[in-house]
Amino acid sequence: MRDMVEIGMGRTARRTYELDDIDIVPSRRTRSSKQVSLSWQLDAYRFEIPFLTHPTDALVSPEFAIQLGRLGGLGVINGEGLWARHTDVAAKIDQIVELVDKGSYERAIALLQELHAAPMQPDLLAAAVAQVRAAGVTVAVRVSPQNARALTPALVQAGIDLLVVHGTIISAEHVGDGEPLNLKTFIADLDVPVVAGGVSDHRTALHLMRTGAAGVIVGYGSTPGATTTGEVLGIGVPMATAIADAAAARRDYLDETGGRYVHVIADGQIANSGQLAKAIACGADAAMLGYPLAVAAEAPGRGWYWPSAAAHPSVPRGALLPVDDGWLDDAESGEFVRPSLERVLYGPSDDPFGSLNLVGGLRRSMAKAGYSDLKEFQKVGLSVRA
């Protein structure tokens, strides 16, 4: 039964829960973390860890996507970002970082908008795809619902393995100025699997599953201080409830189709391994990470993070957030030294708050609760904080 509360005469709202509102409750015998498997498979592609990247230029360059792929995850390139528009992306990001280092945040957002106003160059994006493909890792590219029809043919020809149709909030049919994008027809005509989102409720998740999507993204990458969708649009996604609702839609769709399984991917409010474990416990198969990976030395943002929505031409919904605060690796020089991506994922960690060794933290959480794989862990007990 849904927990409804009256917020005024004749107006009710549903009580919902964030990841920090719940806790995992171990209720089985514990096991060694070495007996825990984090592998999962999306369509024909198998991954050793359940991590995708939020498709932002602050995080994913072709080189970053290759490194994450070699470490077992999946890097998602922004098909409408800087790597699709400029030949000297590193220099452009240097300009952005120089502005924020000086405290000129508004000018940095304006520069992001200006850089994303440059025309897209299909050859540049094809070259980025080719670079990742040549490394032998799975290639995933994100497009918006508005531009999916125009950009996808060239991406398929370039050799992508997975297409991610991603927006702040999307539906099965996007109504724009031209012909609406019907995802069901769109996906049926493609030879590559599609992951689509974000969604925040059972009904929309079920609609997207019925389009034939291989995975559904829940949330919009909300990171306190970086994502400003709540301030700009008044929209909020309580991730614990949203993931659980999407998992319920997955069960309904599984019964409806007689066995077709659609993966639920959590995208938001995950900054440490504990929140990651809670997302899986609520029903997610994998997580789309942004801020937690941006601290890595390989991330092109150089210690700064911004979501892809920060570059919207007229309604930006993201700020630039430093990821260096609180870190001090070099005791002699007193300077911040960013850890490698491998260390962020696999440790070793000297951070007691779960921002390093994300894989180890998730493994140990599952082991302490007595579960050996991701699907089983979705059955773990949960409690709500008073």
Automatic annotation (TrEMBL):
<dbReference type="GO" id="GO:0006183">
    <property type="term" value="P:GTP biosynthetic process"/>
</dbReference>
<keyword id="KW-0560">Oxidoreductase</keyword>
<feature type="domain" description="IMP dehydrogenase/GMP reductase">
    <location>
        <begin position="19"/>
        <end position="303"/>
    </location>
</feature>
<dbReference type="InterPro" id="IPR001093">
    <property type="entry name" value="IMP_DH_GMPRt"/>
</dbReference>
<dbReference type="InterPro" id="IPR005990">
    <property type="entry name" value="IMP_DH"/>
</dbReference>
<dbReference type="GO" id="GO:0003938">
    <property type="term" value="F:IMP dehydrogenase activity"/>
</dbReference>
<keyword id="KW-0520">NAD</keyword>
<comment type="similarity">
    <text>Belongs to the IMPDH/GMPR family.</text>
</comment>
<protein>
    <submittedName>
        <fullName>GuaB3 family IMP dehydrogenase-related protein</fullName>
    </submittedName>
</protein>
<dbReference type="InterPro" id="IPR005992">
    <property type="entry name" value="IMP_DH-rel2"/>
</dbReference>
<dbReference type="Pfam" id="PF00478">
    <property type="entry name" value="IMPDH"/>
</dbReference>
<dbReference type="InterPro" id="IPR013785">
    <property type="entry name" value="Aldolase_TIM"/>
</dbReference>
